[in-house]
Each structure stands twice: as C-alpha cells, then as structure tokens.
Design goal:
single chain, about 500 residues, MetI-like fold
Length: about 500
C-alpha cells in the first residue's frame, strides 16, 4: 500500500515534468508567490500559536458548565470547508460586514480584509482550534499528582510558569507552529478568495493559474517542486526542534485546581475564553443567520452538486480507509516505521494541484480527463486525508496488538480473521473519527475539482464559489449553510458510529 501511495503521489509529478516543454525557470511573479507563501504561512503559524497559549491555558485550568460543549464548538472551524469559513469572515470583517458597520456607526474608518491581512486572518481562524487542541492535550496530560505536589510545596503563579508551563510550551509549541506552517503553505481557496490580486498569490494558487489559464506544465511542475521543498524543509525542522517531555506517570485522578491562582488570573482566563469563542463562533453564526432563509430557494444545480459531493466524500473516505488500515498495521510491525509515515506525509508535501495536473497528463492519451474529474478528485482527497487517518489509527493498532496480539497468535488468527476479530473491535473509535475527518475534508474541498470540472458536474464548494463570482450572494449564503450542515453531519455520523460500536 505504501508503494502504491508513493507511486500515486510521485508518478503525477514525474508526468508533469516529462511533458514540460523548453527550459524551466521561475519568473518574477513566481518568486513573489514564494515570498508571499512563506510570509503568510509564518505569520499565520505565529498568530495561531500565540493566541492559542492563553486559550488552552485557561481551558486547562478552569471548569465551568458547558465547557466540553464549548471546546467541541470551538473546534468546528478546523472541520468546516474553507470556503464556508471565508464567507463567515467576510460577513464579520468584509466591506459590508458587522465590524465595518459598527465602525461606520461611530464614525471610525473601515477594515480591509483582502490581501495579506485577510489571508492571515483566515488561516488563524482555521488553525487556532488545532493549536488550542494540541496545547490543551498536553496541558491536561500533566498528572494530578504533580499538581498536588506543587500545592504541598506552596508554588506561586511564577513557580508554576517556570516548572510546568514553560517546559510544556518549549516541547510543544515548535512542533505545533511548524505543523500549521506546513498546512498554510498549501493554501489555495483562502488565497483565491481573499488574496486580492497578484501581490497576494500563494505557490498553490500560482500552480493553478499556470495550468488552468496558461497550460504551462513546466512552470506548474517547477512550482510543485518548490512546494515540496518548502514542505520537506518544514518537516525536517519539525523533527529537529521537537523535544521529548517527561512529565511522569499518574494514577488518572481527577484534575486539581492549580496553585497560585489569583483574581487577576481568573479574569485573564475568562477574557481569553470569551475572546476566542467570539472570534471562532461569530462567523459561523453569521453564515447561519444570513444563509438559512435562502436554503429552501436554492436552485436545482446546487442540490445536484450537494448530492455529488456526498457521494464523492463517501467514496473518498472509503478509499482512504482501505489505504490507511493496511499501512497502519504494516507500520506497527516495522521496527522503523518512519519511512512509511514519510511516504504518507508526501501527500501533504506534494501539491494537490500538481497531482491533479499529472493525472490529467497520464489520463489524457487513453480517456477524457474532464469526464473523470470526480474520480480524480476523490483519489486526491483520499491521499490528502491519509496522514490524518494514520495519526488516529497507528496508536490504536499498537494498543490492540499489545493487548490482543498474543491471544490472536495462540488462536492462529491471520490476515482478515485477525483483522476482524482482534483489531477492528479496538479500532472502531479512531476509525470512526478518521473516516468522519476524511469525509469532512473531501466534502469541503475546493482544489483539484476546480482544474477539470465543467458546468453541471461541479461539487457543492465549486458551485458555491461560482455563485459568489456571479454576485448571487443570497444563493451563495444558502449554499454555505447547506455545505456546513452536510459536512458537520457526515463527521458527526461517522464519529458517533465509531463510539457506539466501541461502547458495544
């Protein structure tokens, strides 16, 4: 499976290079796109982790009614289709948005969302929940016994920062920041809608323009190689700066209140949680308020696109699982699984646009690539979801083998029988989460489908983008509500199904 994934990723890149004509070199606009990509990704990663620190810290230290529901809702932007999130940000920060309306009412100047500031704002909005969850997970992993000891020693607020919080942040922040940097380097839809012109073009968007408008395969391939180089360098930096953090073992007791708590720290935590909730939830509320009345009047082509998106999401998630489960089992049995994991992460490093372009080149001599736009999009979406599925499945497979492996060996279980009776019952929870995540990602994708699709065969995100481009704002807002509802429903259904099976 790993070899097939490697072939599916690197084969299209080689095909694009093979079909390139003439000398290949980067122009001034390409260098501008590279600089903008690095700048916006660095600012987005920095903004996401800096804002996540006080939010994760506050959520780890405070207990209040509705806390779990708030944490779940604050994670919604990470699952939402990018185009829906952008529409929500436009409703708040756009020229006719709520913020500019309030500023105009008091006679202040307006806020501009297009350009670098808009791209960074959107990326922070999309990735802040991820940064919060990464930091919160580590904060909550501190054993209660350590907090009890700090109480006994009379630790102050400064002592807690020095002995607990700073070592935690030093171990977690670099990896979280570089992960978000990696995600932001492959930005397409955000730059497409909020870039505001050639000065705010990312490498991914430049690849799309080189193929879609110029059909310059050489330039698209070279930009794809640049994209790979950026992602590989970011990945190597992540491995280099990640530090092991030894926090000791605990007895899984309930968390304790932190020592050194003051009225000022309580107010600070309240402000951090409230501010993050407003920033993340207000755009979603705006999308629902503006688009819900228009859902019933959506044209038939939008409903047809929604049906295509659902079928595509289910097929893409099924393909991703069929690749991820054998790879996860294979990785657990290897002494050094880093190579297989690196192959999976190639699917993020290599631009989806380059993979789509290469598949176009490979398919063109034997079939019509436009007619295969949906299968190609499903394949690329499955490859992009693969690293996230492996992250969820590998630890669960390791635990299942540790607890059930010897019994399965004694019973002579091999192959599908071992998978069915020994592994799958222990994988239902992470498998449900991973399938839901893959389906949600595919449901909201606006990438490869934009290369090949013709009117009448687009997905719901693409139809929504076309409605926005034709200034049919009401229909676009209604499509956004429909897309958001379907995406969250798919994720919830699979995630909930995995949990029910696990409980059974």
């Amino acid at each position: 499976m790993a070899a097939l994934v490697c072939l599916a990723v690197l084969g299209p890149l080689g095909a694009v290079l093979w079909r390139a004509d003439g000398p290949i070199r980067l122009g001034a606009s390409d260098w501008s796109a590279i600089r903008f990509t690095l700048l916006q990704a660095a600012l987005s990663a920095l903004g996401s982790v800096v804002l996540a620190i006080p939010v994760a810290r506050a959520l780890a230290r405070r207990t209040f009614r509705g806390r779990q529901a708030l944490v779940t809702l604050m994670g919604a932007p990470f699952l939402l289709p990018v185009i829906v999130a952008v529409l929500g940000l436009l409703a708040i920060f756009g020229r006719a948005g709520w913020l500019n309306g309030a500023l105009g009412w008091i006679g202040a100047g307006d806020v501009q969302i297009y350009g670098l500031q808009g791209v960074v704002l959107a990326h922070v909005f999309l990735n802040l929940p991820l940064a919060v969850r990464l930091l919160l997970q580590d904060w909550l992993s501190i054993p209660s016994e350590r907090i009890r000891l700090a109480h006994a020693l009379g630790f102050s607020h400064a002592d807690m920062r020095r002995h607990f919080e700073w070592p935690l942040l030093r171990a977690t922040l670099p990896g979280a920041a570089l992960l978000i940097f990696l995600i932001c380097t492959t930005s397409f839809a955000v730059a497409l809608i909020l870039g505001g012109g050639p000065a705010a073009t990312t490498v991914e968007l430049a690849i799309y323009q080189a193929f879609r408008f110029d059909f310059d395969l050489g330039r698209a391939a070279l930009l794809g190689i640049v994209q790979v180089a950026i992602c590989v360098c970011a990945g190597l930096m992540a491995f280099g700066v990640t530090r092991r953090r030894d926090i000791g073992a605990g007895l899984d007791r309930a968390p304790m209140a932190w020592p050194g708590d003051t009225r000022g720290s309580r107010w600070g935590d309240t402000i951090a949680i409230t501010g993050a909730a407003l920033f993340l939830l207000l755009p979603l509320l705006a999308v629902v308020m503006q688009g819900l009345p228009a859902v019933s009047g959506l044209p038939g082509l939008v409903w047809a696109a929604a049906a295509r998106s659902i079928v595509l999401a289910l097929a893409s998630a099924a393909l991703a699982v069929s690749l991820a489960v054998p790879m996860a089992i294979f990785m657990v049995r290897l002494r050094r699984p880093a190579l297989v994991e690196g192959v999976a992460f190639l699917t993020i490093a290599v631009s989806p646009m380059v993979i789509g372009t290469g598949l176009f080149v490979l398919i063109f001599p034997v079939a019509d690539p436009v007619a295969l736009a949906l299968p190609v999009t499903g394949l690329v979406n499955a490859l992009i979801s693969l690293p996230f599925l492996l992250r969820a499945l590998v630890p669960a497979v390791q635990q299942a083998e540790a607890t059930q492996g010897r019994l399965a060996d004694a019973l002579g279980l091999r192959g599908l029988q071992r998978l069915r009776h020994a592994l799958l019952p222990r994988l239902s929870r992470p498998l449900g989460f991973g399938v839901g995540l893959a389906a949600a990602f595919s449901m909201g994708d606006l990438g490869v489908i934009a290369l090949f699709s013709t009117p009448g065969q687009g997905t719901l995100p693409l139809e929504m983008y076309r409605l926005m481009g034709s200034y049919r704002t009401d229909d676009a807002q209604g499509a956004a509500v429909l897309l958001m509802g379907l995406t969250l429903a798919l994720f919830w259904a699979f995630d909930r199904g995995g949990r029910l099976n696990a409980d059974a």
